[in-house]
Design brief:
Radius of gyration: 17 Å
CATH topology: ADP-ribosylglycohydrolase fold
Number of domains: 1
Number of strands: 0
């Protein structure tokens, strides 16, 4: 298996922290409202269990390692389905249960995916939630980052908005990774750099709106304007998550607290933001208690387990 670049491992870890941290807040907010969130009281530990966001990101990083950074769509689709069959209780969306079961049963992935939602395909945020480590892998070539992000998206999400959402996240992570060791780009510049490489779409419009928001914009207002994943679509998830990430590129801890404040599809917005920022910062800046609380990742090299980490 090809060695996995450090920025990719960092991005995957940041994604998993965001996913597990965000997922804990659904129950807390139902029970306590915003009181615990406003007080920034961390979720009780252990166990911060990650969801399908991380499960699929691990599969994707394994595929990149196997293919030297190139996505083999047939192999990736089967790997997603196999991971699902091993553990179906990771919070997969209703349409993904159907897609992955049918792929596991032997149906061609491209026919299954293209037939979703009356032939439109899913425009959900599932392709975007796992894309940050791929962007970190291709930080030296933004065109390749966009191409491979689109390829991995297509095996589960056929709709152009879902594909564009994944491309946007990959580009953001690539830009974050290539800025390691240097000054962080300003939020508007960072978001514009992402938007200018996207096709005409609702996702691009959302990222451009995010780039124009005044510096004093509150998290609640940003979530109201951009959407924070309540519809679980690419357009109402990705612009908000990237706005959160772009404002705190040097501070993963702050990024996750800010992102969860928008509520919505919290595990996914935090997974996206965490994966982008950690591609630049790594995860060492997170409190030690968080490292203890979060469920460990499975090994990336299933033959040797050499990349298993906490």
């Amino acid at each position: 298996m090809t060695n996995v670049p450090a920025a990719v491992l960092d991005s995957l870890q940041g994604l998993a922290f965001g996913d597990a941290f965000g997922d804990r807040w659904f129950g807390i907010l139902r029970r306590q409202g915003r009181a615990a969130l406003d007080a920034r009281t961390p979720p009780p530990e252990p166990l911060w269990r990650w969801t399908d966001d991380t499960a699929q990101a691990v599969v994707l990083v394994r595929e990149l390692a196997e293919g030297g950074g190139i996505v083999d769509q047939d192999r990736l689709a089967l790997s997603f389905a196999a991971a699902y069959a091993e553990d179906t209780h990771r919070g997969y969306g209703a349409s993904m249960h159907d897609v992955l079961r049918r792929i596991q049963a032997g149906e061609p992935w491209n026919e299954v995916v293209a037939g979703q939602f009356g032939g439109q395909g899913s425009w959900g945020n599932g392709a975007a939630m796992r894309a940050a480590p791929l962007g970190a892998w291709h930080s030296g070539d933004l065109d390749e980052a966009a191409e491979q992000a689109a390829r991995q998206s297509a095996v589960s999400h056929h709709h152009p908005e879902a594909v564009t959402g994944a491309v946007a996240v990959a580009l953001a992570a690539a830009l974050a990774a290539r800025s390691r060791g240097g000054p962080a780009p300003a939020r508007p510049d960072f978001l514009r750099a992402v938007a200018e490489r996207l096709p005409d779409s609702d996702v691009r419009s959302g990222v451009r709106i995010a780039a124009r928001m005044p510096e004093h914009t509150s998290v609640r207002h940003a979530a109201e304007v951009l959407g924070s994943g309540y519809r679980m679509s690419g357009p109402d998830t990705v612009p908000y998550a990237l706005w959160c990430a772009a404002g705190h590129l040097d501070d993963l801890h702050e990024t996750l607290w800010v992102t969860v404040g928008g509520r919505g599809d919290i595990d996914t917005t935090c997974a996206v933001a965490g994966g982008v920022v950690a591609a630049r910062t790594g995860v060492d800046g997170l409190p030690p208690a968080w490292h203890t609380a979060r469920e460990p990742l499975p090994p990336l090299d299933t033959r040797e387990g050499e990349h298993a980490s906490s």
